[in-house]
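Hi R.,

Here's the chain you asked about this morning:
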Amino acid sequence: CGDLTPSLAFWREEFHLNIHIKRYAKPYISLIDGMVMGGGVGVSLHGSHRVAGDRYRFAMPEVGIGFVPDVGATYALPRLPGQMGAYLALTGAAVGPDDAMALGLATHRVASSDFAALETALVAGEDVGAALARFAKPAAASALMGERGLIDRCFSAPSVQAILDRLDEAVRAGSDFAARTADIIRSKAPSSLTIVLEQMRRGGAMTFEEAMAAEFRIVTRLAEAHDFYEGVRAAIVDKDGAPSWQPPRLADLPPGFAAAHFAPRPGRELGDAP
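And here is the predicted structure, written out as tokens:
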């Protein structure tokens, strides 16, 4: 993994920016009309107003590259309805604007064709609430929320393996959604899946600052591990789509593996001087 100093400096600056956005007292408006993932989530989701256009697509797909949802996802995702945050974090699934409105990821739904006029109104100084009310339109029904009963039932299980077991039960009962979901989860890094579920279980009781500090501890550890580099290789560098995870199975992870990633790291804490 080489010298991690530049990476640690980047994450520290990014995470402090996320905290600043979360605590910013003035209206903070994100106009989102495309993919919003990773760092884009960090600079939009924690602001006061999140406007979803027709092309809006939200995802936190880090489990697919041996990493975890960060930039405040530990705080935000567990606060979505029911077990929706755990579902999004463990699958990396993308949701559109109508699902985002139902989940609370977006605060307003505006047609893409109205984005330029909305921006002009805001730049001209029109009251934020009035401008958004003028351009906002009702969201359509959320298809994902139609699966909430199954998602809540399966993703409330105490472990990743137990979640898969419940999904398999739903498959046997005839659920195509459960089949697709189980297949997706089984393609992800076992190490990441286990840590991510721990994030979702702990995050609901954390303050935003506590969640960011926990994420810094996690990502600095993942930057020293195998799966992050292997996931990037398979998805981005070689693009072979065939990562070799270490370990390859959930059952091979040692007891306490996920919890260990939340332990303090003297000298590598978010609040430490660069």
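One quick note: The chain has a mean pLDDT of 96.

Cheers,
M.
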